[in-house]
Amino acid sequence: MNNLEAIRSKIHEIRGQNVMLDFDLATLYGVENKRLKASVRRNINRFPEDFMFELTEKEFANLRSKF
């Protein structure tokens, strides 16, 4: 699998939007997940309003069942 295919495989459709999960983005950027989330929250004004949202328990369970 090449790099582009690897990235595409990390994109999921949730709430009608194509999204990447925080831990996949952290891996892509080579940082810890908690560091990525802290950086985004610290600089939230630099991101569009719809950049980040939290999954409901049902959405998380549904996504986890696909793995």
SSE order and pairing:
Blueprint: H1 3-8, E1 11-14, E2 17-20, H2 22-29, H3 33-42, H4 57-66
Antiparallel strand pairs: 1-2
Helix pairs in contact: 2-3
User: What is the tally of beta strands?
Assistant: 2
Q: How many domains would you count in the coordinates? A: 1
* Residue runs with pLDDT of under 50 for 5 or more positions: none
Coarse structural class = mainly alpha
Sheet of most strands: 2 strands, antiparallel
Number of helices: 4
Strand content: 5-15%
Question: Helix and strand string, N-terminal first?
Answer: HEEHHH
Quick check: average pLDDT? 89
- Shape, per Cα inertia axes: globular
The share of residues in helices is 40-55%
What is the CA-atom radius of gyration, in angstroms? Answer: 13 Å
Strand order of the largest sheet: 1-2
Terminal-residue CA separation: 18 Å
Write up this protein.
It is globular and about 30 Å long. The mean pLDDT is 89. With 67 residues, the chain is mainly alpha-helical. The protein has a two-stranded antiparallel ribbon. Helix 2 packs across helix 3 (33-42). The protein has helices at residues 3-8, 22-29, 33-42, 57-66; strands at 11-14, 17-20. The protein has one domain (3-66). The chain contains four helices and two strands, in the order αββααα. The two termini are 18 Å apart.
